[in-house]
């Protein structure tokens, strides 16, 4: 490779890396309370110079030594208001059905995911109609997660089409792409669900909410 | 004990290969190691010689109904090593859809591990995450003490890690957990490729000593060992892939013991 091209590529890489944020990864994060952290540190087994359990440790150990984190408080789902009336429009999931064959299992999974996708899109649409970007973002995250799964287990949508599962993509198409950024949302069919007078700030707030980040209206 | 989520939302970066082979290398050194296949594609399970579609119970049952199917009941020992696998299953995709509306959805794996650790001891737990940032990956992060991020030395590596960083920040808004980076692992590295070398240097510059010195070179024997359903160290100990993961295991143990 020519040195000037390599230099150019390196500069481009650096520009890209400069635009990104890695602090949470590099520094680590903790949302545990200080007192709980202290207690956990006291209970946790020492990492330093620990021996292989299979060689030295007994088969079982005191439960206190084996605890990871204490059972956690459960974060509340946003209280949906406008979504409620649309939820009844889509079918509900029944309890898990354990079928015999691999094909049937895939069919079951795709059907469940398709139903859930419609439910979450319905909730997102209701929130958008109510002009609630926070709630719409919450459901957009669910929609994106479902689409990631669908892309993962049936990348081309062929199996879903074969079984004609709920919300399967039409012939020649695959699943909708995810929308984790403004650019992706703009290109996504979901952008058609945005309120007619929604501006960039509304869309940005929705995307931030999908990431679980609160958006400050005063810009601070 | 360390619980390590092997995570990168990009597919094909050797998450599964790293989970299987690093776990096997640690187990071969006598460390009791648990591997958790949280990917609905269940490739870790298949790669370790277990046909997930023939299993009566797997992780999806544990996540949906831990009282009926505790984690301990689904563990499989691998190759006479102190290496255990909690097998994945395609139904994990179904489980994820079922879990999503439940308020405790992100804590299901952590709670199951807590119950397991009351009866079983492990030195290392590795969780093979799906290539997405959904509920299953959230479960892995909330249950883990550390992250291991395999990444190809490609232009998009930074974007992927930025996305993961955003996800971690996002999770701090609603979930209670503590996690730190065990390391970034350069995988599928091609010898003599200047571009790979350049990108690797940039990643090291950004992440410093969080990037493992060991790199995993592209090696067809790794893929062959997966077809044979066994870790590379049992398939061909002299292969480059085996040597790479042996070296990685040593490096991780050195980090763990300070």
Short note summarizing the structure:
Chain A is an all-alpha fold and 220 residues long. Chain A has helices at residues 3-18, 23-27, 34-43, 63-66, 84-87, 102-129, 133-153, 158-163, 182-187, 200-210, and one strand at 29-30.
Describe the protein:
The complex is a heterodimer of chains A (220) and B (258). Chain A is mostly helical and 220 residues long. Chain A has a domain at 84-210. Chain A is 50% helix and 1% strand. Chain B has a single domain, classed as P-loop containing nucleotide triphosphate hydrolases (Rossmann fold). Chain B is an alpha/beta fold and 258 residues long. Chain B has an 8-stranded mixed β-sheet, sandwiched between helices. Classes of the chains: A mainly alpha (220), B alpha/beta (258). The interface between A and B is large, with 78 and 90 residues.
Task: Name a few traits of the molecule.
heterodimer, A: 220 residues, mainly alpha, 10 helices, B: 258 residues, alpha/beta, Rossmann fold, 8-stranded mixed sheet, 11 helices, 18% strand, globular
Q: What is the total tally of β strands of chain B?
A: 8
Query: Which fold name fills CATH's third level, the topology of chain B?
Result: Rossmann fold
Low-confidence stretches of chain B: none
Rg of chain A over CA atoms, rounded to whole Å, is: 23 Å
Extended strand count of chain A: 1
Taken as a percent bin, the fraction of beta residues of chain A is under 5%
Judging from the principal axes of the Cα atoms, what is the shape of chain B? globular
Which radius of gyration of chain B do the C-alpha atoms yield? 17 Å
Q: Supply the number of helical segments of chain B.
A: 11
Largest interface: A-B, 78 and 90 residues
Kindly name the structural category of chain A: mainly alpha
**Biggest sheet features of chain B:** 8 strands, mixed
Q: What is the element string of chain A, with H for helices and E for strands?
A: HHEHHHHHHHH
**How far apart, in Å, are the first and last alpha carbons of chain B?**
14 Å
């Amino acid at each position: 490779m020519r040195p000037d091209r390599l230099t150019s590529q390196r500069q481009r890489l650096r520009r890209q890396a400069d635009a990104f944020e890695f602090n949470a990864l590099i520094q680590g994060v903790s949302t545990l309370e200080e007192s709980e952290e202290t207690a956990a540190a006291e209970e946790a087994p020492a990492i330093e110079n620990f021996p292989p359990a299979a060689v030295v440790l007994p088969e079982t150990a005191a439960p206190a030594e084996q605890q990871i984190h204490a059972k956690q408080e459960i974060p509340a789902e946003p209280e949906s208001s406008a979504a409620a009336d649309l939820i009844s429009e889509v079918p509900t999931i029944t309890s898990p059905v354990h079928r015999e064959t691999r094909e049937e299992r895939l069919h079951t999974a795709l059907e469940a995911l398709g139903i859930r996708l419609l439910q979450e899109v319905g909730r997102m649409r209701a929130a958008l109609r109510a002009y609630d970007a926070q709630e719409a973002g919450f459901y957009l995250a669910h929609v994106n997660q479902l689409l990631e799964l669908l892309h993962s287990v049936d990348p081309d949508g062929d199996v879903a089409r074969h079984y004609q599962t709920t919300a399967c993509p039409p012939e020649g198409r695959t699943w909708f792409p995810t929308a984790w950024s403004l650019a992706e949302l703009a290109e996504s069919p979901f952008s058609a669900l945005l309120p007619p007078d929604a501006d960039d700030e509304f869309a940005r707030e929705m995307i931030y909410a999908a990431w679980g980040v609160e958006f400050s209206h005063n810009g601070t | 004990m360390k619980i390590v989520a092997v995570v990168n939302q990009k597919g094909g970066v050797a998450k599964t290969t790293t989970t299987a082979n690093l776990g096997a290398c640690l187990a071969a050194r006598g460390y009791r190691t648990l591997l958790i296949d949280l990917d609905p594609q269940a490739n870790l399970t298949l790669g370790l010689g277990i046909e997930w579609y023939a299993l009566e119970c797997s992780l999806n049952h544990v996540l949906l109904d831990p009282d009926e199917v505790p984690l301990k009941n689904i563990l499989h020992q691998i190759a006479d090593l102190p290496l255990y696998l909690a097998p994945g299953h395609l139904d994990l995709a179904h489980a994820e859809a079922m879990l999503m509306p439940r308020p405790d959805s992100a804590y299901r794996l952590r709670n199951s591990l807590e119950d397991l650790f009351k009866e079983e001891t492990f030195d290392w737990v590795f969780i093979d995450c799906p290539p997405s940032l959904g509920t299953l990956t959230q479960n892995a992060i909330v249950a883990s003490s550390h992250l291991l991020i395999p990444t190809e030395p490609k232009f998009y590596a930074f974007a992927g890690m930025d996305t993961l960083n955003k996800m971690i920040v996002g999770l701090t808004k609603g979930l209670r957990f503590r996690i730190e980076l065990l390391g970034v692992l350069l995988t599928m590295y091609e010898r003599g490729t200047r571009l790979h070398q350049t990108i690797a240097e940039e990643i090291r510059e950004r992440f410093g000593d969080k990037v493992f010195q060991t790199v995993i070179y592209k090696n067809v024997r790794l893929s062959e060992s997966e077809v044979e359903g066994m870790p590379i160290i049992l398939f061909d100990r002299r292969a480059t892939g085996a040597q790479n993961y042996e070296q990685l295991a040593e490096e991780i143990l050195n980090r763990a013991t300070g």
